């Protein structure tokens, strides 16, 4: 098998003669690392069920900073060690020869950027891998777990900290991509922290400093503060507002005096009719000016010249 990209592109590695080893095809490997892109660069890569270590060495070739390999079969471990020497990656590779369950529990938390797992075909290890990785918190925040499995197998995680973002089928196999979400605080802790931050913000605000004398003892309070001003003093040139009379007649001045050239409206009597002739005389005068009949006293409408008079 040959590496498909990176500094070791085109170089071949050995495959152990073991019936359980099933190396990932070159097209699938190339598709996988095209999806990962620059996420591989400077990453700490973990390869579970490594077999020949092909996926891990492909990650080192594409810029990963360190590789941890987990494999329990002695023949596969010897092949991985020989391939690391052959490619010059012996200083960047750590081999753990044990069962994947013990290996996951022995690894440190928040250590890996990318974890790849290729368990035996049609086995039930897929769900167990996702469960253990989530419980032991091996991934860093926003780290990726990639599981290669049969497209007929479901690997939906039980732990909510791992979120399935995509499942890409390739022939009879598929890649499932999981992302490590940020851990959430318990609701009561989050509420208490928000209350403390709010109280600290109010305490340090300028308005809080200006009104800090309200919390002092009464004898130490500033007499010019809120609630100690007393009634408002009278305006300049005016009387005291608090001694005003009824609001309708300010300063008890009574009704407004008449303006120059007009009589007092309050002393007027009932409004007289025009010329004091009464309503009847006004109607008779109107009838004399506008006698009833056709409009403008022109009589009936004259017939047009081109039509006979129907009357």
Task: Report what the structure shows.
- The chain is α/β, with parallel strands linked by helices and 311 residues long.
- The chain has a domain at 31-180: Rossmann fold (3-Layer(aba) Sandwich), CATH 3.40.50.150.
- The protein is 28% helix and 16% strand.
- The protein has a seven-stranded mixed beta sheet, sandwiched between helices.
- α2 (54-61) links the parallel β1 (44-48) and β2 (66-70).
- The radius of gyration is 48 Å and the shape is elongated.
Structural class: alpha/beta
The percent range for helix content is: 25-40%
Strand content: 15-25%
Task: Give the low-confidence spans.
Answer: 220-226
How does CATH name the architecture of one domain? Answer: 3-Layer(aba) Sandwich
Give a quick summary of the entry:
With 311 residues, this protein is of the alpha/beta class. It is 28% helix and 16% strand.
Keywords:
elongated, alpha/beta, 7-stranded mixed beta sheet, Rossmann fold, 311 residues
Task: Write the topology of this structure.
Layout: H1 26-36, E1 44-48, H2 54-61, E2 66-70, H3 74-87, E3 93-96, H4 100-106, E4 112-117, H5 125-136, E5 139-150, E6 162-170, E7 173-180, H6 187-203, H7 206-210, H8 278-289
Parallel strand pairs: 1-2, 1-4, 2-3, 4-5
Antiparallel strand pairs: 5-7, 6-7
Helix pairs in contact: 4-5
């Amino acid at each position: 098998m040959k590496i498909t990209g990176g500094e070791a592109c085109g170089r071949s590695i050995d495959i152990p003669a073991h019936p359980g080893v099933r190396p990932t095809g070159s097209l699938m490997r190339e598709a996988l690392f095209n999806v990962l892109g620059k996420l591989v660069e400077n990453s700490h890569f973990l390869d579970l069920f490594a077999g020949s270590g092909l996926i891990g060495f492909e990650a080192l070739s594409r810029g990963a900073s360190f590789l941890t390999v987990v494999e329990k079969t002695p023949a596969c471990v010897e092949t991985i060690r020989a391939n690391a020497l052959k490619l010059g990656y012996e200083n960047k590779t750590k081999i753990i020869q044990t069962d994947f369950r013990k290996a996951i529990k022995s690894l440190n938390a928040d250590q890996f950027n990318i974890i790849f797992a290729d368990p035996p075909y049609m086995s039930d290890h897929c769900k167990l891998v996702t469960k253990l990785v989530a419980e032991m918190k091996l991934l860093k925040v926003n780290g990726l777990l990639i599981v290669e499995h049969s497209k007929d197998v479901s690997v939906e995680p039980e732990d909510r900290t791992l979120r399935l973002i995509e499942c890409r089928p390739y022939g009879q196999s598929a890649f499932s991509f999981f992302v490590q979400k940020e851990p959430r605080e318990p609701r009561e802790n989050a509420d208490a922290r928000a209350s403390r931050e709010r109280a600290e913000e109010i305490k340090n605000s300028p308005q809080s400093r200006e009104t800090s004398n309200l919390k002092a003892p009464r004898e130490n309070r500033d007499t010019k503060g809120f609630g100690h001003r007393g009634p408002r003093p009278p305006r300049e040139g005016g009387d005291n507002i608090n001694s005003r009379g009824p609001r309708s007649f300010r300063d008890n001045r009574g009704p407004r005096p008449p303006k120059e050239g007009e009589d007092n409206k309050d002393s007027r009597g009932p409004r007289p009719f025009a010329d004091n002739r009464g309503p009847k005389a006004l109607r008779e005068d109107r009838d004399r000016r506008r006698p009833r009949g056709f409009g403008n006293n022109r009589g009936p409408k004259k017939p047009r010249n081109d039509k006979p008079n129907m009357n």
